[in-house]
Design goal:
This protein is of the alpha/beta class. It folds into two domains: 213 residues, P-loop containing nucleotide triphosphate hydrolases (Rossmann fold, 3-Layer(aba) Sandwich), CATH 3.40.50.300; 107 residues, Orthogonal Bundle (Helicase, Ruva Protein, domain 3). Helices cover 44% and strands 16% of the residues. It has 14 helices and eleven strands. The strands form four sheets. The protein has a five-stranded parallel beta sheet with strand order 2-5-8-1-9. Strands 3-4 form a two-stranded antiparallel ribbon. The protein is globular, with a radius of gyration of 21 Å.
Length: 326
């Protein structure tokens, strides 16, 4: 299994050039059974990463372009009356796929955005009073443009909290950008890992589910659990001071909920699994903390010139984590 994961990670990185850390975070999110939000400027490779991830793992995939006139029924589906059988038949929407790409999700209205809430949390949808299960595994990848772009609606906190991770690809370095300019189109390159996965058939769905089950069983010691609790507790309450490098820094942020703690634990287990370990280290928590928590913390930062999540990480003593809580 471990060699299979390494091979697929290499295939993803061969398409999404110059972003090995972001590719690994995306794969970690899928293995941890979470959902992924990718925020960046247009043309940075958000859709390419989503498409490549689905194709590489040989999962059913559907992309939906979110626009201001998109309706909830366009996502989940609708029951239509069949005059021949005199009964209603379900016409399934794109959400009935293993990987669903909600492209530019923040261009749709809040009502349409909320159509994904039940699917992301309960992995089922309700249509005309009936509940329909979604395929397994079920993985939502949403992309969004920065909020200063015109025609965007900010995602509510309840929706943001459904995403296990938020990542940003950023601009590639000079070497990677040169390779991007000289390489074939993203469509051609994305077809390569899809064909290899289909030819090799090396990761059937049952094996992916088995990996996800194994990841859930990875051991987390009491010390690791206390470290996660301490990180969550530092974020809670009003603005407070933490000591970093001998100076007090004010942190003002939204509190991390128990759901955020569970997401952090699940993501860290998947990260450790990719490293071929069946136990967690503090470094696993640190590796995924920003991606898992920054969009939940969201907010003002003062005095340090670094992100809120980095401030919180630096404020908690790994050896005595609970003593760091306010």
């Amino acid at each position: 299994m471990q060699s299979v994961v390494s091979k697929f990670l290499q295939q993803i990185e061969s398409v999404v050039l110059g972003k090995p850390h972001e590719c690994r975070l995306a794969l970690t999110c899928l293995l941890a059974q979470g959902h992924l939000l990718i925020e960046d400027l247009p043309g940075m490779g958000k859709t390419t990463l989503a498409h490549t991830l689905a194709d590489t793992l040989n999962l059913s995939y559907q992309r939906t372009q979110f626009t201001s006139d998109l309706l909830p029924a366009d996502i989940v589906g609708i029951s239509i009356f069949n005059t021949s059988t005199h009964s209603f038949e379900l016409h399934k929407g794109p959400v009935f796929n293993q990987v669903v790409l909600a492209d530019e999700i923040n261009r749709a209205s809040p009502k349409t955005q909320s159509a994904l809430l039940e699917a992301m949390e309960e992995k089922q949808v309700s249509i005309d009073g009936r509940t329909y299960p979604l395929p397994e595994p079920f993985f939502v990848i949403a992309t969004q443009n920065p909020l200063f772009h015109s025609g965007t609606y900010p995602l509510p906190e309840s929706q943001l909290d459904r995403f296990m991770m938020r990542i940003s690809l950023g601009f590639p370095d000079i070497g990677a950008e040169k390779n991007i300019l000289l390489s074939p189109s993203s469509v051609t390159k994305a077809a390569k890992p899809q064909q290899e996965a289909a030819d090799n058939n090396s990761l059937p769905i049952e094996h992916l589910k088995a990996m996800q089950h194994t990841i859930a069983q990875i051991h987390a010691s009491d010390a690791i659990i206390e470290y996660i609790i301490a990180l969550c507790h530092v974020s809670r309450g009003q603005t407070h001071n933490v000591n970093m490098t001998g100076a007090d820094v004010a942190i003002s942020c939204k509190p991390l909920s128990p759901r955020a703690g569970k997401a952090l634990l699940a993501a860290a287990k998947a990260w450790a699994y990719i490293d071929n370990r069946d136990y967690l280290l503090p470094d696993d928590i640190k590796a995924v903390f920003t991606a898992v928590c920054e969009h939940r913390l969201a907010l003002t930062e003062q005095g340090a010139g670094i992100s809120v999540s980095e401030q919180i990480l630096q404020s908690v003593n790994v050896l005595n984590p609970l003593k760091s809580t306010p």
